Amino acid sequence: MTTNLRLIDCQNLAFSPLLAQDRMRRAQQLLGVNVVQRFLCFALYLLGVNRSAIGQALDIPAETAKSIIKAVTNDGLCAFEDRRRRGSAFLPQSQPQPAPITLQGEDERIVVDFGIEGRQLVIPRQNVLQIRAVLLSMVNSGFLSNHQVAEVIGLTPAHTATLAHRLEHDDISSLLDKRQGQKTDYRVTPQVKAELVQQFVVGAVAHRKVSSEAISAELKERCQMTIPARTVRHHLARLGLPIIKNTLPKLLAAAKKNSET
Hints:
By secondary structure, the chain is mainly α. It folds into three domains: 18-80, no CATH class; 102-175, no CATH class; 190-260. 53% of the residues lie in helices and 5% in strands. The chain has helices spanning 17-31, 33-46, 51-58, 62-75, 128-140, 146-153, 157-170, 190-205, 212-222, 229-239, 247-260, and strands spanning 102-105, 109-113, 120-124. It has a three-stranded antiparallel beta sheet with strand order 1-2-3, with helices on one face. A hairpin with a 3-residue loop joins strand 1 (102-105) and strand 2 (109-113). Helix 2 (33-46) crosses helix 4 and helix 6 crosses helix 7. The longest helix is centred in the last third of the chain and has 16 residues, at 190-205.
């Protein structure tokens, strides 16, 4: 949509040198000499004055006048300002982007880092329902993605999205396991659980890594048991073993010392 502008006849306008001098002085104090000069240059250009005449009127080289007009035409308001300045006083200031929220799953805990020093949310790994409620709420609020949460809680992104939808519409009760009757863990037998405990205790006493990944690899190599690290981590947490990781070696050492006396 275009607007028809009436041509301004400057010959019929009365110019007051005194008013012009006072107004120029105040404008230069407020905006700066160069900014006022650029405004006048572009205003004369809009009124139809040729570039050479603009240069003569403003006591600047004709090429400078051409450069000012070209810059304003191409770049808009910011071209009136001093390009050496970092920010613009004419254009709205862009807001700094907040640091992204990151999610990290460890053997003993889940850590949500809000990107601000000292601002972390830490949830014990064994608090499964709390973890799901908090992280899925963050998914529904757009703070975390399905893929981020799925990787930490050990589900597929699709299943994570389904749970997030249930939480939003049916409250936290939708996250509870509603299966009735005997809940038998067919995959991890008592024999496997015993081996998990044994590997954990041996690793802790020997000051080796007792991460779920390390134990999973040890089970595969030594016992030919293929147990995913996620499953190992789940059962270690259910048995409460990560809690005694640091105290177990000291306790065994003390017991050994007492038995020798």
